[in-house]
Amino acid sequence: MPVAQETEVWQKQTNELKKFLAIGDAKAFRSTFLELHNWEQAQFFLSLDQTERLALYNTLTTKEVGDLFDDIDDDQVQIPDFLSEMEPSYAAEMLTEMYTDNAVDILEHLDKATVQRLLARMPHKTAAEMRTLLHYGDETAGAIMTTEYITIVAKQTVASAMAALRAEADEAELIYYVYVLDNDHHLAGIISLRDLIVNDQAAMINDIMNERVISVQVTDDQEAVAQTIRDYNFLAIPVTDPSNHLLGIITVDDVIDVIDDEAAADYSGLAGVDVEAKLESPLKSALKRLPWLITLLFLGMSTASLISHYENLVSEASVLAVFISLITGTAGNAGTQSLAVAVRRLAFKNEQTSLLRTLVVELITGLMIGVVTGLTITVVVGLWKHTFVLGFVIGLAMCCAIIVANLAGSFIPSLMERLGFDPAVASGPFISTLSDLTSVLIYFSIAQYFMPFFINK
Amino acid sequence: MPVAQETEVWQKQTNELKKFLAIGDAKAFRSTFLELHNWEQAQFFLSLDQTERLALYNTLTTKEVGDLFDDIDDDQVQIPDFLSEMEPSYAAEMLTEMYTDNAVDILEHLDKATVQRLLARMPHKTAAEMRTLLHYGDETAGAIMTTEYITIVAKQTVASAMAALRAEADEAELIYYVYVLDNDHHLAGIISLRDLIVNDQAAMINDIMNERVISVQVTDDQEAVAQTIRDYNFLAIPVTDPSNHLLGIITVDDVIDVIDDEAAADYSGLAGVDVEAKLESPLKSALKRLPWLITLLFLGMSTASLISHYENLVSEASVLAVFISLITGTAGNAGTQSLAVAVRRLAFKNEQTSLLRTLVVELITGLMIGVVTGLTITVVVGLWKHTFVLGFVIGLAMCCAIIVANLAGSFIPSLMERLGFDPAVASGPFISTLSDLTSVLIYFSIAQYFMPFFINK
């Protein structure tokens, strides 16, 4: 069956489910609804109005609603509204039933008073666990890990480990890796369910477990965690503190969200706009894009006032105006390319390249690009305007402007990172607007110097 | 343990392993090497020179080398060299031992004659399977699926299914989902290992299996497959033909690679350069970036020649030159934003928005942005140059240029997609260079019309 959402069947089923809710036929609703995958349940839920949602809360158990909330995207802006329309004790119970990492994602989007109110209504142990998770820094391993994993001890047979696994399976988010702990809750080994299945049931865990456990630290950046899971092709990775106590695990589905979010952030940064995949209202789009545009407009004003400074030069040789946009445009393009490469390289933390080396490489690259582009334009302009002096001025200016734009494009993201910002906030539009300024300065300085040679055009 | 590669321990171990290879101590080499995770083995392998690699082939079995090749990134350019330095029969045997999808990824990067030579040396069944997989279109579900999955029939108990699973586990890439087939190889249901474990061993598969199987078609785009796995949080998804015969499965690790590749392609497109995470030599970088830059340079020349056409206007009112870069720059920025949004929206196939609706939304967005930005600059220029006529000319030109750039930014990627190209090839630099041309045309047309009113500045 293809993805349900697209089909007419889905449309029909949705309408039917809504009808059941409206007429209060709980039995019919439950029998159809609980057949759906959790993600489909979530999609259905998101299509309801408030009256329908209230009817749904009454028809389903907190566990069943928790299951669908596990599959609602955590950047869904309506979540706080959903929680506030539930009875507080119902909301607390539902959050308790959810996987801890997902519940914590939701709590992070609520105001502090509401969080306290909800935690107060949870079982003591769950509330304590969530409080701990809420304390981990944003975008760290701690913030995305879950505490629902299966642990066993090493001195037992596969058969007894399987029994332990069966007993705990209901609570765990992932049962395909089992973590082996010693007496002090240190992570001593790991064994996959695959190994438990294929090995002799009488074999001892400590003989077959993998002791070379790859783990991440609770304070590690989520991007580094994603990189490790991707490299090793794991389904999950354990998270430990510096003394190797097991604190939680991070599953591959959360890592996919991290990869997605980071890619979207890099992409949005390059474009100078927070890109959303959904079609938004024009007003919302405009409000999102205007701040950057207006900021850059004022940066652009300094370029304009610089040109204004050279207005006399332009009125003497109006041909200079002809090439302003060509030089600023080409340098801006080169700067954007170098920016994109720099941002992407910074995203891959395991490539440890020194800033100096990057700058040297980018300088030489810029030099090569500048010389080739400069020579090309020298010839083209020389032939077109029948003066190779002018061609040379344009070519030299373009070459210098490209080198400067290239350096800015690669240096600024590194600088941002060193100052503790996300390098992706150095946007493409920012670099090209900045490069307009330097390009114009370079262009008119060179033109002024060579003025005497081509004024008699 | 943190990721091995970064630690000194790793460096020491690598050196030790190389020493074992050099002195030909196969036993010592094997006992250390086979303790490593496959990905680490792959990293070690990639650090070897040819002599060392040849020694390694002699020391390890084809299965062991196949395991590490499973974890070499398929865009690793050296792979064809590795295969050509192996004995052909060794290479064929190694590919046979690998997971089919990974082996096919490698074959896709070899020339046809080599592929035929290798297939001829494989067992008949494997070669036939690989030939089929090689025929699926690039970037489709068929191209990334594997044929190593576990199937059972419905009319048996959990206990007998578990026995079947144990027997097949060694060959399968993923054993955590088991696919239930009917007599005609139709996909009739799916059951997770989790369900097999927690259910009563005497339960019948057809009572507990999930019959609402979410699957993808073999011709589906890989991006749509990735979206489905991500939405449903699956570890794998079955691939079927239109008659619902099971052809293969796609696992979550391959989906992560797809998400990565697509994100990198969108990102590279926006920047107008094929972005690689690794630091490349300046020459290589320059050669990669120059083609676009030179192409755009010639597009930029048409802007220059358009300005040249208006040179008399500029020499009469040199103040016009002051605002060229401000108008082209701002319109270019707006166009880049709208381009980024359009490309990203096209990437999410499940959002079915008509082109017309997108354009209308983008037109209204452009209008709002244009009016706000235009009014701002009218006031600023009016105050600065003490002439609100000039301010109005700049403001009006900027407003129109932004609207046009916005439309181009959202229309061109859609056009590309309709013509069968990847919308991401419409790069940011291309849109801003194109928008330079239209902006200059709009600017000077408006300026010429209003010329009489501000020439007496």
TrEMBL record, chains A, B:
Positions of transmembrane segments: 290-307, 319-343, 355-382, 388-409, 430-451
Topology class, membrane: Multi-pass membrane protein
InterPro entries on file: CBS_dom (IPR000644), CBS_dom_sf (IPR046342), Mg_transptr_MgtE_intracell_dom (IPR006668), MgtE_N_sf (IPR038076), MgtE_transporter (IPR006669), SLC41_membr_dom (IPR006667), SLC41_membr_dom_sf (IPR036739)
Family annotation (PANTHER family): MAGNESIUM TRANSPORTER MGTE (PTHR43773)
A GO cellular component entry from the record: plasma membrane
Subcellular localization, as worded in the UniProt entry: Cell membrane; Membrane
CDD domains for the chain: CBS_pair_Mg_transporter (cd04606)
Entry keyword annotation includes Cell membrane: yes
SMART domains, per the entry: CBS, MgtE_N
UniProt keyword Transmembrane helix present: yes
Keywords, comma-separated and alphabetical: Cell membrane, Magnesium, Membrane, Metal-binding, Transmembrane, Transmembrane helix, Transport
One function term, GO molecular function aspect: metal ion binding
Name listed for the protein in its UniProt record: Magnesium transporter MgtE
Function noted in UniProt: Acts as a magnesium transporter.
Main localization of the protein described in the UniProt heading: membrane
Assigned protein family: Belongs to the SLC41A transporter family.
Subunit annotation: Homodimer.
